[in-house]
Amino acid sequence: MSTRWASGRPGSRVLREPETTPEPTTAPRAAVPEADADHRQRTGLAEQAAAISAEWAPTAGRILLGVVFFWFGYHELIQPGHWTQYVPVVSESSSLAVVLVLAHGWVLFVTAAALVAGIAPRAAAAIASVLLLEIVISLVVTGVSDTALRDLGVLGLAVCLTGCKNQRLVLRG
Amino acid sequence: MTRLVGLRGLSVLIFIGLVALALAVVGWYQRDNGEVGPLPNYSSMEIAIHAPGGGIAG
Predict the structure, then answer these.
(1) Residues of B in contact with A74 (CB under 8 A)
(2) ipTM rounded to 2 decimals
């Protein structure tokens, strides 16, 4: 508006009127730009937060999934006896069950490293999805439990990460 | 494989794979739950405690 007034005819009385208008009329005009600026600032902050979230959320999800995999992989590797009960078909007390748990723990551990370090993150997330699908199926076979449903949610995260192309902190080369 | 993960990525994966293998060896040797055997009951043992005066107490 002020630009239009400035570009008007210099001698025009109409242009001078806003300068001589009484205070009651100018007060609402001053309040509107303040509210507008506040709204713009809030919108700007929301957009900035959304941009940061869109940029970093896949990375945060990937690293947190990697931490989960590290924890389970480490414990399966050093205490396989605690995990043999989850091996389907094979006897819990057999050496084959221990070997299977160790192999599973090894894959979890290496996949966790790939997820945390950002080594082929989408491929790592795809492997994580397959692993979690196998875990969920083996848990559901024995009956739906809280653990199975929790792992179903983690499977959802892994599937989501498989489709995320925008990744930060990725190890390349 | 190198094209997919890169040379540095492959190096990291090999290193982590070897660490995991070492942990698996540790896990194999403590596969029976990794629990330490029960401690002996010391209260049932007769332990001689030498008293300051030269005698044996307990």
Answers:
(1) 23
(2) 0.71
Q: Phi then psi for A85, rounded to 5 degrees?
A: -65, -20
Of B5, B8, B23, nearest to A77 by CB-CB distance is B23
Nearest in space to A116 (alpha carbons), one of A54, A62, A173: A62
**Tens of pLDDT, residues A11-22:** 444 444 555 555
Residue B47 maps to a domain: no
pLDDT digits (tens, 9 = 90+) for B12-44: 999 999 999 999 999 999 887 645 455 556 665
Taking one residue from A and the other from B, the number of pairs with CB-CB distance under 8 angstroms is 77
* Residue B13 in domain: yes
Contacts of B20 in chain A (CB under 8 A): 73, 77, 105-106, 109-110
Tally of domains in chain B: 1
Q: In sequence order, what DSSP letters do the residues of A68-127 get, joined into one string?
A: HHHHHHHHHHH-GGGTGGGSSSS-TTSHHHHHHHHHHHHHHHHHHHHHHHTSSHHHHHHH
Min distance A86 CA to chain B CA atoms (Å): 14
